[in-house]
Amino acid sequence: MVEVPPDSSPGLATRLYQHLLNRPALQQWIAEQRLEPATLTFHRDHIEGYANHNGVRSAVRFSLTDNSGWNEVSRTLRPIRELLDPSDQGLPFIGPDDALWLPRQGVGQITAGNLEQTWQVISELEERLALADRLEAELEELPDTARTDWSDHETELSPASSLPRHSQAAVERLQRFVTSPQMVRLLEQEGFAWAGAPFRVSEGRLERLSPVGGWVNLTRYVEAVPELNDEFEALAALSVPLGNALYSTPRYDMRQLLDFKGLGSARTVSETRNLVAWLRTALPTPPPLGDYGALLPQEWKPGTLTADDQKHMGTMADIRLRGPLARGFSALSGVTLQALQADPQAHLDRLLDSPDALAFGEQMAGALRWQVGQGANSTLPRTLLQQLVTAAIKLHVDPSMSDKPGEVAGYPIYQPTNMGRSFSQVRRDIERHLQHNKGLDPKLAVLAAHVCLAQAAPEMLVRDVPESVSIGTPAWMELRLGCALADHNAPGTSRMMNEQQVTDLTTLEPVSDAQATLMQLNALKVIADWGVLNGCIRQRSDSGYSSGDIQEAARVFFRQREDVATAFTTASSELPTRKALAIKELLRVFPGITQAELEGMTVHVASAEDRRNLPVSEPRTRSLVETYMTGDLAPGKWVLSDDMPAFPATAKTPYHHARAPQVTEAARARLDTRIRRLPELDKLLENSVLQHRKKLQDAYATKLKLMFAELPLEDRKLLELGKVELFTLRRETGKIQAEETDALKDASRARHGTLMRVEHGPTVVHFEVFANGKIIKRTDLPDAMELDGVIHREGFPSPHGPVYLPVVRGAQMNLDLDAYANGSHPDPNPAFQAVIVSALGGAFAARELPPSHTPESFVPDTYSSRKTASIVNRIAQDNFYEPAESMLQRASESLPLEKHREARARDHAFLLGFVPFVGAYQEFKQGNISAGLANLALDVVGVAIGAGSQARALIRSARALVPSRLTQLVTRLKPSAIAVPQVKAGASFSDRAFDFIKQSGLFTSAALNPLDGYPQMINAATKGLVKLPALLAGGAMKWGKTVPHLVTAEEKLRAYLLIAAGQASGTEAPVVTPTAGKAGRYREVDVHATPYNGRWYAIDPRSGAPFGTPLNGFQPTR
After folding, report:
1. Are 715 and 894 in contact (CB under 8 A)?
2. Considering only CA atoms, which of 508, 589, 586, 291 is closest in space to residue 990?
3. pLDDT tens per residue, range 331-382
4. Alpha helices, DSSP H only, in 572-646?
5. Which of 319, 381, 563, 635 is a good FRET partner for 20, with 20 to 30 A between their CA atoms?
6. Residue 478: pLDDT over 70
7. Contact, 15 vs 100, CB < 8 A?
8. What is the spatial order of strands in the sheet that 199-202 belongs to?
9. 606 backbone dihedrals φ, ψ, rounded to 5°
10. Contact call for residues 100 and 11 (beta carbons, < 8 A)
11. Which DSSP letter does residue 376 get?
C-alpha cells in the first residue's frame, strides 16, 4: 500500500472515491449488512470482506446480480472505482477521516486526466435518479391516460451538466432577438411588453411567461413579420439539440431536460412512467475483454489483426495446443472437467491472469512485432496480452473465424434440432463438437466454447438463466433482444448481468419511432431464427429471408403469444367458490357497501313465534353470507339485525311478561325483495365451475401444444407424419366383471397422464404425456398392447364351495401408475405393476411428407399443426386431469386440507408451464391472481405474487427472489436493476421489435426506396452479419441521407447507455491529430501511419504513438 498525496492528480480522484464511499445511502447499506468497513475490498462486479453478526465473523461477497442491493447503492461509485482500478485488482475502503492509501501496483495505472469526464458521468447518474424521484412524486396515483406537460415544471441541473455550456451561444442569440427594436415594437403593439418576463423557444413555439403565470404563445405574431420569422426559425432549429427548448434567462424545464437526455417528450402519465424506468436503467461496467473479439473484427481496422497475423497466430496456437507436443495451459491442470463446466467464466479469468498465459501472449506479440508506444513507453498492456491469448484460442478452434452469428466452428446453435433444449444441453453439444471435430482437449473445449459463445450467442453467457428458458421460447427471444440492448455500445456487457436484468431491458418502451426501428433491426435475425426453429419458415443456407418470411414468422409468433397469454390468465384465475359467488351476488343486491361490511352483516329470525320454537342448538342470529351459502336465506323468514327493534326491559316480576319485539313489515319486505333477486347458489356454482373447467381445458390444450412443440425434431416429425393413438390407464377395481360400473372404472382412471403410441413405417415409439409438463419417450414398451384388461375366472368362497367368476385384470407393465394417478414426478425406473390400458378415441391417421420436402429438410410447425390441435384437444377434453365432480367439491370447500394443498400445487405447476412463453412485461392483473396461488408462490419461490407482479418472476430461482433484508432501504433508494412501470399501457421493445405485421415500416421503406440502401441494411441485419452500431457507423457518410433519423436515434441511444454503464459519452477519446507520419491506405482502409524500426505502424488516435502490427504494404498518399 502507498499513501496518495491529497492534492496530487491521483489524490483528487481518490478523494472523490472517499467521498462517494461515505455517503449516507452506501453507509446505511454497509451497516444493514453488518459489514466491517476496514475489511472491504471493492471490485468491478462485486464487493467482499467480513460481516459480523452477533459476534460471529464470516467472509461475505455481494455482487451486482444477487439481489443484495449492491447493484443499486454502488451505481455512482462504479465509475470512479473503474478509473482508480482499471485492472480490477481491488480497492480498499477509505473512511471519512482516513489517509488516502491505495495498492502500490494500482497507483501507476490511474488516468487522472479522465477525472473530469468521470465526475460528469457521476453527476449525470445522480441527476437521472433525482429526476426519476421527482417525476414519481408528481405522478402519485394519476391514471395512466392522464395528460402531462412537463415543460411547466422548472428544474435545476447538476453542477456538471453540459446543457448550460452547449446552450450559451443560442441563449445569447435569443436575448438579442427578443430585445431587438422590431421585436420590442411588436410586443408593445400586441400588449405583451411585460417588464422582466422571460422568453422561451419550446417545441417550435415562441412563448413568454405571463405576469399571472403560464406561458403565452407568441408564435403567430412573430410569423406574421418575415424578418422576425426568419430569425425565429433559426432559433427553433438551434433549440432542437438542446432539449427542443431555449430560455432567455438561466432557466430549464423538466421536459427540456428529458429531451436533452435523449428520452423525448412524455405526453401522458403512462409515457412518463416509461421515462422513469429509463432514468433508473443502469448497466454494469463492461468487461475489459468485451466479447473476446476485439482483435478479430469483420473488417480490418488499425490496432487489430490482419489476415496474415491471424494465420501466424493460428500456427502458433496449434503448436502449443494440438499434437503430441501440446503444452496447453498450466492453469487447467488439477481442475476437473465438472468444475470447469460449473463456472467456466471464473476459470477462464484465472487462466488469462496466469503467468503462463501472459507469457504466451508476450511470445505472440513479439512474433507479430506488436508495437505500443515508443521507447520506454512501449510496455504491452496486460489486457492486450489477454486479448491475444483469447484470439489464439478462437483461431485454434476455427482458423477462418467466419464470425457467423449463431455458429461456433461450424456448429449451428439455432438449428431446428435444438428447439426446446436448455442452454446447458446445447453447450455440452458444442464442447463435444470441438472435441470430436476440432481435436480440442476436453478441458480446453469448455473454455473455448465460452470464448466463442460470447460473440456467437451472448445470451448463453447471461447469469442465472432458468433451465425453462430454452431455445425457441419467447423468453429466449427476449433474452437475445435484451443482450442486443445491453451490448449495444460495449460488447460483453450482458455477460455481467443476470437474466432478470437483461430481460427487463425489453420491457422498456421505445421513446421514439426511430428507436423502435433500431430494435426491429436487432430483432430481424431473432424472429427469423425463431421461425426456423418452430417450422414456420424454411431454413435458408444463406440466411437470406424475405420480408414475407419474416412477417409469417411474426404472425405465428404473436398468435402463439396471444394463445399463451389467454391460457396464462385462465391458469392464474381463482376457482369460483361457493363463498366467493355468494359475496358477489349479495354485493349486487346490496349496492353501496363494501365486502368487509357485507361479511359483517347478520340476519335475525323475524317471527317471534319461530324464534321461540327453534331448537336450542339453532342460532337465532346468523351471518348473512353463511345463511345464503347454506340455502336457508328464504323470503319471509329473516330480517337484517340492524332492522330489529330494541328489546324491552326485562319484566320486574314473574306476573309481568316481557313483550317480544315485533319487526315492521317494511323491514321484512325490504330484505325479502333483495332475497328474491338472488339466484339459486348451487346451480350458479355448478355453472360457474363448469365454465371455469372449460376454460382450463382450453388452457391445458395450449400447454400440451407448447410441450409437443419442444420435443426433439425427430419426435416432432414422427408425431406429424405417423399414425397416433392415445390411451388412458387405470387401476384394477377389485370387483368382479358383473359389478364393475362405469363410475367405478372412471374413479380408478389415472388422469394426470396419457399414453401416446406413434407409428411411422417400421418405427413404433410411445410417449408418456403428463399434465405436469413432462413428456417421456419410451422405446421399451410392447408395440401392441392388450386393451381393456384381460378377463380371468377366479374363485370366490361361497356356502356351497368356491365359485369361479370373471374378473378384469391388468397386464404387467413397467409404468409409474402413481405419476399417472397423482401427478407426482415420474419414476425413471418404474417397477412392473398391473395396468389396464384403454383407447382414448380413434387413431389419428398418418400423413404424407409435404411436397418439396425431404425427410431431412422437413421441420413441422408442431404448435400450429391441425393434427397437433386434434390430439391435444382430445386429451384436454376426454382425459382432463381433474373430474368435474372433484372440482365442484373443491369449489364447495368441502375437501380435506391435504386435497386442497395438492390441488394448489398442481395449479401452480400448471401455471409455471406457461411462463417462458408469456411476454416479460406480462403482469398479474387485479382480480386474476388467486389467493391460493399467491400463498403457494410465497411457499415455493419466496416471493409473494399480487396484482402488478411480473409473471416471469415465477421461473426464477428462490435465491434470486427472496426479498432482501434491506427492503426498506432499497425502497427508499428506488432500486430495481431495471425499473419498470407498474402499468404497461404502451408497447414495449419486446412487442414492437418482433411485430413486423403492424410495425412494417422497414419493409415498406425498402419497397418504396430500393436504391437508397434500405434493402441492403435489412438484408445485413437479417443475416446478423453486423452489429447495429457498426451498421450505422459513419452515418453521415454511409446512411446519413438514407436514414438520418436512425443515425440520430442510434447516437442518442448510444450516449444514453454509455452513461447508464458508468462511462463517459466520449469514451473513445478525442482523436489526436498526428504531428508525424503520413496518411495513406492499407487494405482499402484510410489510415495514418508512421515509420518505426524500419516498418510502418498505424498511429493510435488516443496517444499519437505507433501501435498494432506492422502495416506491410502500406501505401502513403503521394
Report:
1. no
2. 508
3. 999 899 999 999 999 999 999 999 999 999 999 999 999 988 776 557 889 9
4. 578-589, 595-599, 608-613, 624-629
5. 381
6. yes
7. yes
8. 215-217, 205-209, 199-202, 245-247
9. -75, -40
10. yes
11. G
pLDDT score of 962: 34
Which value, to the nearest 10 degrees, does the dihedral of the CA atoms of residues 444, 447, 449, 455 take?
A: -140
pLDDT at 960: 32
**How far apart are the C-alpha atoms of 754 and 889, rounded to whole Å?**
24
- Sorting pLDDT into bands at 50, 70 and 90, what band is 110? confident
CA distance 993 to 973: 31
Q: Give the integer Cα–Cα distance in Å for 849 and 336.
A: 47
Q: What is the mean pLDDT of residues 782-794?
A: 89
Is pLDDT above 70 for 658?
no
Mean pLDDT of 300-323: 91
734: which 3 cell numbers?
377389485
Task: State the DSSP code for 284.
Answer: P
Which ranges in 7-114 belong to alpha helices (H)?
A: 9-21, 24-32, 70-73, 77-84, 104-107
* Phi-psi category of residue 751: left, alpha or beta, with phi > 0 → left and psi -120 to 50 → alpha: alpha
Contacts of 365 (CB under 8 A, 6+ apart): 380, 384, 385, 388
Contacts of 749 (CB under 8 A, 6+ apart): 728, 729, 730, 879
Q: Which residues, including other chains, have CB under 8 Å from residue 1056's CB and lie 6 or more apart?
A: 261, 262, 263, 278
> Would you call 755 helix, strand, or coil by DSSP?
strand
Cα separation values, 680 from 249, 582, 583, 630, 684, Å: 73, 10, 13, 11, 6
Spatial separation of the C-alpha atoms in residues 587 and 928, rounded to whole Å: 19
Choose the weakest-confidence range: 263-267, 510-514, 660-664: 660-664
729 touches 753 (CB < 8 A) = yes
pTM of the predicted structure, to 2 decimals = 0.86
Instruction: Compute how many other C-beta atoms are within 10 angstroms of the C-beta atom of residue 240.
Output: 14
DSSP, collapsed to helix, strand or coil, labels residue 399 as coil
Residue type (1 letter), 317: A
Cα gap 470→158, rounded to integer Å: 44
- How far, in Å, CA of 49 to CA of 1005, rounded? 57
pLDDT digits (tens, 9 = 90+) for 23-35: 999 999 999 999 9
As a whole number of Å, the end-to-end CA separation of the chain is 54
Buried b (16+ CB within 10 A) or exposed e, 304-343: bbbeebbebbbebbbebbbeeeeeebebbeeeeeeebbee
Q: What's the pLDDT band for 1083 if we cut at 50, 70, 90?
A: confident
| Cα gap 773→775, rounded to integer Å | 7
Beta strands in 157-297 (DSSP E): 199-202, 205-209, 215-217, 245-247
What residue type is assigned to position 65 of the chain?
A: T
Separation between Cα atoms, residue 1059 and residue 129, nearest integer Å: 13
> What is the secondary structure of 881-908 as a DSSP string?
SS-HHHHHHHHTT-S-HHHHHHHHHHHH
Is residue 978's pLDDT more than 70?
no
- Residue range 1036-1065, pLDDT digits in tens: 345 445 567 778 888 889 899 999 999 876
C-alpha grid cell for residue 1100?
493510435
Helix (H, G, I), strand (E, B) or coil at 502: helix
Give the C-alpha separation, 551 to 540, whole Å.
16
222-230: Cβ within 8 A, 24+ apart: 222/183, 222/186, 225/182, 225/186, 227/182, 228/177, 228/182, 228/183, 228/186
- Cβ count near 1071 (within 10 Å): 10
Average pLDDT, the chain: 85
